[in-house]
Write a structure and sequence with these properties.
The structure holds two protein chains of two kinds. Chain A has a single domain, classed as 2-Layer Sandwich (Transcription Regulator spoIIAA), CATH 3.30.750. The longest helix of chain A has 18 residues. In chain A, strands 1-2-4-6-7 form a five-stranded mixed sheet. Chain A is built from four helices and seven strands, in the order βββαββαβααβ. By secondary structure, chain A is α/β, with parallel strands linked by helices. The radius of gyration of chain B is 15 Å and the shape is globular. The two termini of chain B are 16 Å apart. In chain B, a hairpin with a 3-residue loop joins β2 and β3. Helices cover 32% and strands 29% of the residues of chain B. In chain B, α1 runs antiparallel to α2. Chain B is of the alpha+beta class. Classes of the chains: A alpha/beta, B alpha+beta. Chains A and B meet through α1, α2 and α3 of A and α1, α2 and α4 of B.
Chain lengths: 105, 148
């Protein structure tokens, strides 16, 4: 599934579409790391508005990028995760590390 | 009332990561006739995804020549049972493996949340494993529409 990358006000917006599982994270991880390396943004925003499914592999992907970004002083934000993805994020306590915007209750 | 099997499905697929999505789709197709709610469907898909990924990544260490088995049974009382098994390396300490955030593969950004998710998203989770022989994960989920 294609992932959209966009630069907006110093932020790299990563918008993966479709399903994020272990199979997809291998490719996503490389793509996102390459874009962060290339753009050196102030902030990375994961926009999940077009993501229909995510399992714990997606948590690993987010936390891994968060760790790498933090070392470089880059902020990470999660946007529009929807109900199902929000549930998994909260279960793993990701919401305590990374701010989530546009949460569906 | 005696519980009867309404339907049953068994399949085997190679331990390839591309089959994680395949397993989710097949399980979804199997339960669709029983009108699961959107939430129930999402829960089952996620739990199956976790179990299949574990079999591939941990059980077989991503050896795509091996096979993962998936069995799904729909019962007349509205409960669905999904079993996912591998003949891989097995789990030496199941209690440890089931602890939230415990992982043997942090290097590859595995979070150790797989079993916690399976437990939370289903009604019952059973794990049987033997080192060197393999692991079987059996999950049961009751569909609400049947209880009406």
């Amino acid at each position: 599934m294609p992932t959209d990358f966009k630069i907006q006000d110093g932020a790299l917006i990563v918008a993966p579409s479709g399903e994020i599982d272990h199979h997809e994270t291998k490719r996503l991880r490389e793509e996102i790391d390459r874009e962060i390396e290339r753009c050196v943004p102030e902030r990375v925003v994961f926009d999940f508005s077009r993501t229909s499914f995510m399992d714990s592999s997606g948590l690993g992907l987010i936390l891994g990028r968060y760790r790498k970004a933090s070392e470089k002083g880059i902020e990470v934000v999660i946007a529009n995760p929807g109900e199902k993805i929000t549930r998994i994020l909260k279960m793993a306590g990701v919401d305590k590390l990374i701010s989530i915007k546009g949460v569906v209750k | 009332m005696k519980r009867e099997k309404l339907n049953e499905m068994k399949m085997k697929f190679r331990a390839l990561s591309s089959n994680e999505g395949f397993a989710r789709i097949v399980t979804t197709a199997f339960i669709m006739p029983y009108s699961p709610t959107v939430e129930e469907l999402a829960d089952i898909k996620t739990a199956v995804s976790e179990a299949v990924t574990n079999a591939i990544v941990h059980g077989y260490r991503s050896n795509g020549d091996k096979y993962v088995s998936l069995t799904a049974v729909m019962y007349s009382d509205g409960s669905l049972t999904v079993s996912i098994s591998d003949k891989g390396c097995g789990i030496p300490d199941i209690h440890k493996a089931m602890e939230p955030l415990f992982t043997t593969d942090a290097e590859n950004e595995r979070t150790g949340m797989g079993f916690s998710i399976m437990e939370t998203f289903t009604d019952k989770l059973r794990v049987v494993s033997r080192v060197g022989e393999g692991t079987r994960v059996t999950m049961t989920k009751r569909l609400s529409v049947f209880s009406k």
